[in-house]
Amino acid sequence: MDHVLELKNLNVTYINKERKVMAVRSASLTIDKGDALGLVGESGSGKTTLAMAVLRLLSQAEVTGEAIFRGNNLLTMNNEQLNQIRWTGIAVVFQKAMNSLSAVHRIRTQIEDIYRVHYPKATAEEIAERMKALLRLVNMPERVYGLYPHEMSGGMLQRIAIAIALLHNPQLLIFDEATTALDVVTQGQILHEMVELEKTMDMTRIMITHDMSVVAASCNRVAVMYAGELVEIGPVREVIRTPLHPYTKGLMDAYPSLTGKITALKSIPGSLPDLSKPIIGCPFAARCARKIDKCYTEKPPMVAYDNGRQAACWLAGGNA
Amino acid sequence: MMHTVEQPYISIQNIGKWYPYKNAGRIQLFGAKSHVKAVDNVSLTINRGEILGVIGESGCGKSTLGRLLTRLEDPTFGDVFIGGVSTTAMVKKDNLAFRREVQIVFQNPFDTFTPRDIIQQILLRPLENHRIGSSTAERLEICRKALNSYGLRPVDDILARYPHELSGGQLQRISILRAMLLNPSFIIADEPVSMLDMSVRADIVNMLVDLARVHHAAVVFISHDIALTRYISDNVAVMYLGRIVERGKAEDVLQNPLHPYTQALLSNCTSIDPDANNEIIPIAGEPPTPIDPGPGCYFAPRCIHACDACFREYPSTVEKENGHTAACRLLY
Amino acid sequence: MSVFLAKARHGIASALKDTQLRIGVIAILVLILVMIFRPVLMTVDPYYYGPDILAAPGENGHILGTNKLGQDIYSMLIEGIMVSLQVAVISAMISGILGVLIGGISGYFGGKVDTVVSEIINIFMMLPTFFLILLIIALFGNSILNVMVVIGLTTWPSNAKLMRAQALSLRERTFVKSAIAMGETKIQILLKYIIPNGIFPVVANTTMGMAWAILTEASLSFLGLGDPNVISWGQMIYDGKAYLTSAWWISTFAGLAIVLTVIIFYFLGDGLNHVLNPKYVAGRNK
To answer: Are strands A61-69 and A5-15 parallel, antiparallel or unpaired?
Structure first.
């Protein structure tokens, strides 16, 4: 089966005159049609860097490896090919729509601009038709089409941003912490609306977030990152209920439950390793509760288990 | 539980904070000014050793309430009594004494300390101002002990650092420890972990609870994270547009909510349990700003159960068993 | 005390990584050293009216020539450093202290105080400063002390404006609220939090102001309103005005000295601007 997006050994290094920071190390991941993948990690995990590198939006970074989309490597494309793919093949919804939209233009004007990048001859009526249909899909009244961004709330703007992302029916939609800046209720509503939307539309999506509950509410697969590496991948329910990787387990222990039994909350002791130095062995070893000697000297490879589950841990095999 | 309950330790009585709202372009009738009623007639009681969680969406007034309780802003009306003493009077008579009684932990640990001073100066300053300890050496020892007791080691290294050289988790722990140096009996924690990574939150939260118990302090824990509030709180109060709409024991309010807003709020929250993310109670529209809300129930415009009477008169608070109260006509 | 030294060492070490600042600091240190060692560096007493009138550079041991009174230009230049640095530092200090305190109080305390002070600042900014200075010198006499004080008293508004803007935004920062919650008084907060955190643009502005002060003193002297009893570069230019074509060295070298010094202060000010930029400060050790 053809994957929508396949990452092979992606490495991203930020370079400035003082030091090099290896923000993403050897990331390999596949995303299939219809997947809703949650890419989860805390600060320093590299999750946003990964997505931005794939989209070639990082100016000061060295990116190696492959990111295959529709048979071509995104990382080696020239600008022309890349521009064709942007928005028609892959679209992004960023964290604060307010920051992605011009404050001095009406929504209508901005969307006409965006639309005409790919279809220069489109008429205003065609674009309006398309946009209004999309606004209906995201539960927005048509009249917002003529408003200025500041006349709307954060939740409304975020929904508009989603509608804009859907403009050209992209194959892959990336949400970069798209609901993080919103109220709890608005976030819940938007995530719910998206899941409902997917029942009628074919969508493949990546949700980048630090919040596992967002993933639980809206994704079918999850990939967990730590210190620039992918440590566990698998179906959402199973990873949450029985995490294979000690970091994932530590993360789950840190989440309080809304409705279940109240158990003691635990932090993960220690802190991230220095990303400007090469990491020998498992990046999580120093903070891991179950480490063995091997963890410090040899990096555990990502191993596939049943049910589409993968984990990079020496102890994952027999001891799930 | 040890405390006797003749008089609750903290008594918040009809406190409110109204900001005059200047609406350019509207002719204002004489005397009929508009107000943003950020906090409107809030009354609560809290006992020593009790942790009260305050939840609500943005615009509900919980942060303003936190500022009122710590007198970072003065209330427009109402008062807070601590141990029977009016805080309005306390602040006038002896501001320093009030500051020793009531302390606050802020949301942003990265901005809580001045970037120009090292931690040693930051910690010594309140001790000097409040004349705790009789010499610099003694005060330094107090600081060292405090840092050491909650894992901030090596102590002398941390004391010599600037705030920007420390992590969010470390800074928040120092913030809590600094507040506790004054031995407060009332602590307000305003979203203390929302800017921190998930994996470090537990330590901070547990530390706050631990210290509060040790000092037998009353805690108001303001948060938008309902699951966390459930974990930490004895009691919970739900705010909407400046008013308390529901209050009671944490398990009662969060597992059997009485008020339609609480019910809708809880159903719309994302949960870590994939199976819990199902039944959503719709809330129409956007959270409004508290500009002259009313006259009826503030939540009526968005409530699926609203009837005509709901729009006419603000519902009175009904009490069910166990001190579980809610302001809703449906409970009459 | 040890805390202060530790912080000073920390600050200086990282500050000196900026090239412009390094150049500026080294150059200023050189100037100061020259000023301190002037008796050694001078060839003749600059006040001595020697026998060589209008000697050309190189004649008779006068490296840069002499003026019409027989004073050695080279020695006069070295003597002149003192006046320039004095004017720069003293007027800048008056201007800086006044500006920081007034701007800080106005911005932090707000209310009526702020309204009144802002209007005063506006009035000052409307006045042509140089002409105000001229007027005051004309009225009160042209001693060098007057010059320094007057420059200080007329240039504080720009510092005050900068400090006020900083104070307004710093007022809302969490650490200020935190200090209030800890029971610190308004004065404490002003002196320990507002001013130390807001002073950066003022420091850079003041350094540029030093350059302006030197130029102003020179301009006053050039117009004949300087203090004729002290040797200053401006006075030297004034003296040499009449001899620009015949004995060009009298004015020219003094003029070059002013240009060089002003450039040094600009390097210093610009370098400080880079280094004291709060973003730079915060990210220094990450």
So the answer is: antiparallel
Question: pTM, whole model, 2 decimals?
Answer: 0.87
Round to whole Å and give the CA distance between B126 and B175: 12
Whether A191 contacts A223, CB under 8 Å? no
pLDDT at C286 over 50: no
Q: Report the first-to-last Cα separation within chain B, whole angstroms.
A: 33
Mean pLDDT value across chain C: 86
Spatial distance between the Cα atoms of B123 and B137, rounded to a whole number of angstroms: 13
Q: Per-residue pLDDT averaged across B312-331, rounded?
A: 90
Q: In what order do the strands lie in the sheet with A5-15?
A: A20-31, A5-15, A61-69, A72-73
Structure tokens at A148: 């200025």
Contact present, B49 and B216 (Cβ < 8 Å): yes
Which residues in B lie closer than 8 A to residue C173 (C-beta atoms)? 111
Which CATH number describes the domain made up of C28-283?
1.10.3720.10
Pairing of β B34-46 and β B10-21: antiparallel
List beta partners, residue B45.
B11
The phi and psi torsions of B222 (rounded to 5 degrees) equal -95, 130
C-alpha to C-alpha distance for A275 and A15, rounded to whole angstroms:
12
H-type alpha helices, chain C: 2-15, 19-36, 38-41, 73-109, 111-126, 129-140, 144-170, 174-181, 186-189, 195-198, 200-222, 233-240, 249-275, 278-283
Q: Report CB contact under 8 Å: B129, C192.
A: no
Superfamily of domain A1-89+176-181+206-275+282-320: P-loop containing nucleotide triphosphate hydrolases (3.40.50.300)
Q: What is the pLDDT of residues B270-298, one digit of tens each?
A: 888 877 766 788 887 777 777 888 788 99
User: B10-115+162-331: which CATH topology?
Assistant: Rossmann fold (3.40.50)
Interface residue C284 vs chain B (CB under 8 A):
yes
- The DSSP call for residue A155 is H
Q: For chain B, list residues whose CB is within 8 angstroms of any CB belonging to chain C.
A: 70, 72, 95-96, 98-100, 103-104, 106-108, 111-118, 120-121, 125-126, 129-130, 160, 162, 164-165, 175, 178, 182
CB atoms within 10 A of CB B249: 15
User: What residue has token string 């029971």?
Assistant: C183
Q: Look up residue B117 and give its two tokens.
A: 């001073």
